[in-house]
Design a protein that fits this description.
Structural class: alpha/beta
Oligomer: single chain
Bound molecules: pyridoxal-5'-phosphate
Distance between the termini: 16 Å
Radius of gyration: 24 Å
Number of strands: 21
Number of helices: 11
Helix content: 25-40%
Length: 381
């Protein structure tokens, strides 16, 4: 990812002072004894993994979490020595890399535990591991009803240190918490069984951002926080932390202005027909950059006003109606996501254009958009 402005008149802006402000607000909101794991998977949801990780560690993240071994290695290569958890299941080849890079794996069955144990013992290392309990997502982990024997087995293996036991919610950010509470009950059952058998771990965790915000009874020892410090909420209905602001904006500049005459069409598929003279601006950004492929839908901010997208947007370009913004000219800055003047187009609004969620839009801004970091001077390297 580029650190500097590029020549391209379309870019992603990441404001690290807002990130710091969000982390401060989160720390004030959070019970003091509660630890947090900073989830920076998929390039910290498109914000730049290493940059976000460094700020998270400044603010006291106990560890980082990613979803691939490649990402974990990138963190190590950037000089980060903090614990790095790798979510999901690992192949045997990946386990070797995990040992070499001292990564924290999730070990969810006895065969996997044996594999990792052999690798660890062969290099004389003790590998920290967490066991994932599947309490209802039916994705990774050992089913809650079968978890105790696996946990006890892992705890007893030389070469491994059972550091944590975790689970993950299927639905924590909607108003209906019935299933989340059921999952918590299942997970608590496993924790009670462990206590009975005197199996102790330092890190018990089940909450993502939704769980952190809305289910304080589920906080346990650690919460795994990804989207919150980015200033974006997992849903429209979860609890708000006043002052939290989005870190990422997407901007471009007008590269052309056209006068439409009655009967002119705009864009592929002839989806827009001018029934009166209109003025449109051409923006050099499209669905190839991660904006949803829309037709006559969606708006951008220009001169502090909203300009609607006309026609179907293309891979590399889109057209917006500027008939009501006569002062618009080539070179003017246009906001696709973020604030301008008193108005804001937030990530949920863009997600609505494709019936998706904020996470999808954030991670969808493609790498060909240069990343411009604002207020980056304080980042420790
Ligand atoms: C992505 C992820 C998180 C973080 O979720 P947010 O809603 O972004 O806080 C936590 N735990 C697991 C297992 C995840 O995959």
């Amino acid at each position: 990812m580029k650190m500097n402005a590029s020549y391209r008149p379309a870019w992603v802006e990441i404001d690290l002072s807002r990130l710091r402000q969000n982390f401060s607000l989160f720390l004030k909101d959070k019970p003091a004894a509660l630890g947090f794991i900073s989830v920076v998977k998929d390039q910290a949801y498109g914000h730049g993994m290493v940059q976000i990780a460094k700020v998270a560690l400044e603010f006291g993240a106990k560890s980082l979490a990613v979803a691939t071994v490649d990402a974990a290695i990138e963190l190590r290569q950037s000089g980060i020595s903090a614990p790095v958890l790798v979510f999901g299941e690992r192949t045997t080849e990946e386990l070797e890399l995990c040992v070499a890079q001292n990564l924290t794996c999730f070990v969810n069955d006895m065969a996997q535990a044996d594999n990792l144990k052999k690798l660890a013992v062969s290099v004389g290392q003790k590998m920290p591991v967490h066991v994932e309990v599947d309490s209802g997502l039916s994705r990774y982990g050992v089913r809650w009803t079968e978890a105790l024997p696996v946990i006890e087995y892992v705890a007893g293996l030389e070469g491994l240190v059972l550091e944590g036991v975790m689970s993950h919610f299927a639905m924590s950010d909607e108003l209906d918490k019935t299933f989340a509470l059921e999952q918590l009950k299942r997970f608590n059952l496993v924790l009670a069984q462990m206590a009975e058998r005197q199996v102790r771990v330092k890190c018990r965790h089940i909450c993502n951002t939704g769980g952190y915000l809305d289910l304080p009874q589920a906080h346990l020892d650690f919460v795994r926080i990804g989207i919150l410090p980015l200033g974006v909420y997992p849903s429209q209905v979860c609890r708000r932390i006043p002052g939290l602001e989005p870190v990422l904006s997407v901007k471009t500049r007008i590269v052309g202005i056209r006068e439409l005459q009655v009967g002119d069409y705009v864009g592929y598929g002839m989806r827009y027909l001018a029934t009166e003279p209109r003025r449109i601006a051409v923006l050099p950004i499209g669905y190839g950059d991660g904006y949803p492929r829309v037709r006559n839908q969606g708006e951008v901010l220009l001169a502090g006003k909203r300009a609607p997208i006309v026609g179907g947007n293309a891979m590399d370009a889109m057209m917006v109606d500027i008939s009501n913004i006569p002062q618009a000219k080539v070179g003017d800055e246009v906001v696709l996501q973020g604030c301008q003047g008193d108005d804001e187009i937030d990530v949920h609004e863009i997600a609505g254009l494709k019936g998706s969620v904020s996470y999808d839009i954030l991670t969808g801004w493609r790498s060909r958009l240069p990343r411009l970091y604002l207020n980056a001077e304080n980042v420790r390297s």
